[in-house]
Amino acid sequence: MVSVKQLRPFAGASLESFRAASGAVALIQQPVDATFKAVAPAMVGLRTVGMAHRSRMEERLLAMLRDFDNLEVHFLQPNQDGEEFTVGRTDACDLVVPEPSVSQHHATLRWNAGSGDFSVRDAQSMNGTFINGAPLGFKAQVMLHDGATLAFGDVQFLYLRAETLHEHLRLAVPGTPAP
């Protein structure tokens, strides 16, 4: 896992090189609390706990953006249309989120090569999946769009296409020419 700050040296790479190395999409989040990381292996098989921060999602997003350089970046690298990535608390998931408000298998992301984006479907999680602060619901499968916020329980992510992240990195590096 890398931070936005660690990606800054790659701002000078071409978009094609950046996308080839990173993948099509990035999910960016605040680092998971060290305590949760330490106890994550023992949480497998345990019950999901209720959300503590549902009413403060917008406030937490603003805090994320203020500390953008220290956010963690998860790259999603789909190989074919329809490929699915599981999200949850266990090591069996493609995107492991070691946080007690995240269900063992919380949601599934599905790649749509035609649009260049993922859709998300909640896996009947205890605390739900949220897009831009709105609950997704159990039966819905919704297409994500560049810049959307995505929350699994209390853990909030910023969903960015590789080209958007690359542009943010380029604009933040002094002396880097604008595209």
Q: Can you put this structure into words, describing what you see?
A:
With 179 residues, the protein is α+β, with helices and mostly antiparallel strands. It has a single domain, classed as Tumour Suppressor Smad4 (Sandwich). It has helices at 4-7, 15-22, 34-43, 57-66, 162-171; strands spanning 2-3, 25-29, 72-76, 84-88, 95-96, 107-112, 117-122, 129-131, 134-135, 141-143, 149-152, 155-161. The protein has a seven-stranded antiparallel beta sheet. A hairpin with a 2-residue loop joins strand 11 and strand 12 (155-161). It starts with a strand and ends in an 8-residue tail after the last helix.
Q: How many strand segments?
A: 12
Structural class: alpha+beta
Portion of residues within helices: 10-25%
From the 3D coordinates, which CATH architecture would you assign? Sandwich
What is the count of DSSP helices, taking H or I runs of 4+ residues?
5
Pfam family, one: FHA
Domain FHA: 85-136
Protein name: FHA domain-containing protein
InterPro entries: Cell_Proc_Reg/RNA_Proc, FHA_dom, SMAD_FHA_dom_sf
Which key features would you list for this structure?
179 residues, alpha+beta, Tumour Suppressor Smad4, seven-stranded antiparallel beta sheet, five-stranded mixed beta sheet, 5 helices, 28% strand, globular, FHA_dom, Cell_Proc_Reg/RNA_Proc, FHA domain-containing protein
Summarize the structure.
The protein is α+β, with helices and mostly antiparallel strands.
Give the secondary structure arrangement, pairings included.
Blueprint: E1 2-3, H1 4-7, H2 15-22, E2 25-29, H3 34-43, H4 57-66, E3 72-76, E4 84-88, E5 95-96, E6 107-112, E7 117-122, E8 129-131, E9 134-135, E10 141-143, E11 149-152, E12 155-161, H5 162-171
Parallel strand pairs: 4-5
Antiparallel strand pairs: 1-3, 2-3, 2-12, 4-6, 6-7, 7-10, 8-9, 8-11, 11-12
